[in-house]
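Title: Prediction job returns without error message
Component: structure pipeline
Severity: low
Priority: P3
Assignee: unassigned

Description:
Job completed but the reporter wants confirmation the result is attached to the right record. Sequence as submitted:
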Amino acid sequence: MTTIQLNNLWTYIQGMALKKKDREWLAGKLLEPTADDAKTARQKAYVKESLYRALDEVEAAKREGRKLKTLDEFLEELEEEPAV
């Protein structure tokens, strides 16, 4: 929403005769997470977990003296895998 739309909404809400219970309900609705918020949080958690796993793998490879695949090798491997 634009600032003007938000200001108009706020003016409209202020013009309503809301009881305390109604205001609390409205505040709760405005603050409760949406499906998009939950989806975004899950995506962020997945990316964070994946990055930590990758970092752990790199550190383990360094400790063990293993050579990791280059990005090009990894991409070639992905291209060779059959589509699911």
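Comment from assignee: result matches the submitted record. The mean pLDDT is 88.
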